[in-house]
Amino acid sequence: DAMVIQNPRYQVTQFGKPVTLSCSQTLNHNVMYWYQQKSSQAPKLLFHYYDKDFNNEADTPDNFQSRRPNTSFCFLDIRSPGLGDAAMYLCATSRTLQGFNEQFFGPGTRLTVL
Amino acid sequence: QQQVKQSPQSLIVQKGGISIINCAYENTAFDYFPWYQQFPGKGPALLIAIRPDVSEKKEGRFTISFNKSAKQFSLHIMDSQPGDSATYFCAATGSNYQLIWGAGTKLIIKP
Asked: Which domains does chain B have, with CATH numbers?
């Protein structure tokens, strides 16, 4: 029944220690997004994939990378997490890139940086 | 011009009352206005959406009112229930994929 699945739900890492978050989808959607959401704020788009085409938002730090090995899976790599990277990371999908397409969100991974 | 301004930041409503959340935008190129509902520890989920060619859309207890000339839209929750307690985000988008989000409203429905 789950459509957008994120693992793990909670991740603790140490300052500077690389971490990978994963997302999978059963919707067969073309587009996958990664958002960062800090407490009491709106989600902030980091990047998206349309099929294999990667698009980085202009203000996304270089510390954040992404991989999409196939339609169903997408990974968020944080190369050297800082304390400011502690947040909820949300994966979302949509059928196409057109704005009126509903974005389906996963439950998120809460990242803690010690 | 890309901003969507949302108010209030937080709202407390008695059970059975009407909850009203307001949003305003500047960019006239926006043509799709969704509202997302987010419960604690969950991702946002689409609640209801409207296009600017209609002034109102209703789905159950949830209604969007849209005022194109004023560039404002609002969410009304009728007969508010404790289960409606969540954070609500308005958003706007144009021809591309990017959602421009409001800052969010934390709604608490008191039993």
From this structure: 4-94+105-109 (2.60.40.10)
